[in-house]
Amino acid sequence: MANAPVQRMSQLMAKTLRDDPADAEVLSHKLLVRAGYVRRTAAGIWSWLPLGKKVLANVERVVREEMDAIGAQEVLLPALLPREPYDATGRWDEYGQELFRLKDRKGGDYLLGPTHEEIFTLLVKDQCTSYKDLPVILYQIQSKFRDEARPRAGILRGREFLMKDSYSFDTADEGLAEAYARHREAYQRIFARLGLDYRIVAATAGAMGGSKSEEFLAPAEAGEDTFADCPNCDFAANTEAINYALQPVDGSAVPALEEIPTPATPTIETLAASLGVQAADTLKNLLVKVDGEIVAVGVPGDREVDLGKVEEHFAPATVEMVTEADFADRPDLVRGYVGPQGLGEKVTYIADPRVAPGTAWITGANKADTHAKNVVAGRDFEVDEYVDVVVVQEGDPCPKCGTGLKLDRAIEIGHIFQLGRKYADALKLDVLGQNGKPVRVTMGSYGIGVSRAVAALAEQTADEQGLCWPKEIAPADVHVVAAGKALQTELALDVAGKLAAAGVRVLVDDRAGVSPGVKFTDAELIGVPQILVAGRRSAEGVLELKDRKTGEREEVSVEDAIARLTA
């Protein structure tokens, strides 16, 4: 093994904190700041201190090794990008306010790259002219930029973040499927090596586009994604990607529509209480504006509308809630009493599949203080489009086997897409085929949140004392602590030097004037896998070895400590 340098805490830029940062909401945010790994520069923008940079570099190393193993080639593209390619694909507008836009001194439009499909496509267009140049997989590890409206949770949701993005290029769909499978397997190896607990779930493509899409999610309370897992079969999906089949019923026996007076019942709760019915018997109609045009969204009264699904369906159009001014401009829309019957052509009506043809509902009559019962879908009103738009709930039937689903929170750590030819079509990426004719290239896109993986690991592995890193990505292999006296410091530095000479990465706490208690607390907080203490028996050449994760301690000689830690 190569001689590893000893990192002395007396020289390390890493001030630990006893108290949580005032703005910290999640565990990883609190601990990464307290342990001296990161510091806030501005909202959603973070600086990585030496310990944090080591952890980040270790994640990069694992990612790089596994990407190289599948034949991917590393490049580095600019973060400052011209507008034109993103205009060609429509994403200059699709990204909306999340895109950092800027102008150069000549008035030219540029952006800070949120992701690089367009630029990789143009690179391959420039470099690859024949089918003989393909297939190829290219990747980079680079900072990305998204102007989050509410950056939060420390490095979990920032405006600048480190990401690995890779792209496959092939002339045939079979090649795309193979590249997708190779990435999927590489991701499994990466996250296993990092020590992450993760799930692979079906996902939506979003602004990326394409067909097949899967997410790699790390279960954690701090996660912003909710995923559903079936306890009976292999179904797992982000709740935004769950869709139920439309199942029409026979509504021929339902009596005719009847209007009923319902004064002071503008909400589902007041309506159900007034009529003595279940909320599930009522039809909720939420009004939104899609690029300024009013759209009604129908769901059962006991369910909530998932606005994320609505936005996904109408993307890249802008979706907003209607306002008092909108109701004032449309007297035909009576606030609290809107029903799908009689809305006419002026309002598009979309509904959840649970509002299937033949189902009967109690809903608004489009008159103040009035509702209608026996309102049958397909008889009394038509649905312009069925879209699964309800918030998925615990116990909803699995779309595959019908068993009640389990829900959990998770952090998205990776996402893979079969893009197909969306970007190749927009940017006219062709190569000369075997028959001498142009062939349109098909693409895949594959991302890993490198900085996000650090936060996810902190969330999953930390305990009450602090961080607890897996060895693969820890900033050191062993944290040697000199309890305080000169003899103890001398022994600690001697052991640290011998370990480093054997290739062990060592962090040694040689700080003078710091109490043993503070040093022990900091060692727990920093979270290196092994803690070796030169304490009360240093004069005898006896040390204490502690496993940070399990808390197991034992006294060992200097020789045994070196043998154990270099094995």
How would you briefly describe this protein structure?
With about 575 residues, the protein is an alpha+beta fold.
Q: How would you sum up this structure, described in words?
A:
With 567 residues, this protein is of the alpha+beta class. It has three domains: 6-12 and 476-566, Anticodon-binding domain (Rossmann fold); 57-242 and 407-459, BirA Bifunctional Protein, domain 2 (2-Layer Sandwich); 258-386, YbaK protein. The strands form seven sheets. Strands 4, 8, 9, 10, 11, 12, 13, 22 and 25 form a nine-stranded mixed sheet that branches. Strands 1-27-26-28-29-30 form a six-stranded mixed sheet, sandwiched between helices. Strand 26, helix 12 (486-501) and strand 27 (506-509) form a beta-alpha-beta unit. Helix 1 packs across helix 11 (450-461) and helix 2 (50-69) runs antiparallel to helix 6 (173-194). The chain is globular.
Question: What does the secondary structure layout of this molecule look like, with pairings?
Answer:
Blueprint: E1 6-8, H1 27-34, E2 38-42, E3 45-48, H2 50-69, E4 73-74, E5 80-82, H3 84-89, H4 91-94, E6 100-103, E7 109-112, H5 117-127, E8 136-145, E9 160-170, H6 173-194, E10 199-202, E11 213-219, E12 225-229, E13 236-238, E14 258-261, H7 268-275, E15 283-290, E16 293-300, H8 307-314, E17 319-321, H9 324-329, E18 348-351, E19 360-367, E20 370-376, E21 385-386, E22 406-420, H10 422-427, E23 430-432, E24 438-440, E25 442-449, H11 450-461, E26 478-482, H12 486-501, E27 506-509, H13 516-526, E28 530-534, E29 542-547, E30 553-557, H14 558-566
Parallel strand pairs: 1-27, 4-8, 16-18, 18-21, 26-27, 26-28
Antiparallel strand pairs: 2-3, 5-7, 6-7, 8-9, 9-25, 10-11, 11-22, 12-13, 12-22, 14-20, 15-16, 15-17, 19-20, 22-25, 23-24, 28-29, 29-30
